[in-house]
Design brief:
By secondary structure, the chain is mainly α. The protein contains ten helices and six strands, in the order H-E-E-H-H-E-H-H-H-H-E-H-H-H-E-E.
Length: 249
Amino acid sequence: MLLTSRCACANGSAALIESMFGVTTSDDYRPVAWMGRYPVDVTTMLVGLHVAAAILAAILYAIGASAILVYLQFDSGAIWYSGQIWRLFTYAFVHVPSGLLWFAVEMYMLFVFGREVERFIGRRAYIALYLILLITPAVLLTIWGLWQQSALTGSPALHFGIFIAFATIYPRVELFLRIMAKWVALILAAVYTFQLLAYHAWSDQHALALNRSLRSCRKRARDVLRSGMMFMPRSIRFSIKSPSSALEV
């Protein structure tokens, strides 16, 4: 009975993802590659890419060539007046050494929660979601730059959007101190918003607001899937010791 219900859930999920992102295949739910006995998925590759970018930034700061990073961060003025459109993509990979401690926490969160989102919606849909969270805030801030110049660096808002996606898919998962994921997402969103207000970081605040808007769209998708997910366990434990299998049933 449990196997039948899980198959029904998978079929319902695949049908919804197909209607949203196009044709989905069984390959979407398989690792991209294998390193020995360890699977390498899109999330693992993204973590590796961000870590490499952070190391490169630290080296540039050490040798006094940090000015190179200025050409990679988002700047609406440089996009409008100099045509530097690569800034729409590269800003998220600029990680200054002063924030490496929080960057490490951010990468761990991406590795744990991003893999679960990728496993649920499939590889292609996950890549599409990541690109939407990456590009859309920059595009909107570029339009906003017609009235007020905006700048943006780093990926906290981007990866917070991935956690919001996880909390939308598994709202009743118990995380830290047995607090459900939906409440953790709400608390972190409130804390992050007050922090941005205190420092008048309007660009980051706009990006965070966009991610919350995207969350409401994903919530509607989750409601469509609810009928197929009703047989899933109500409590899914979060495993700290085994990041590669972040959820234990």
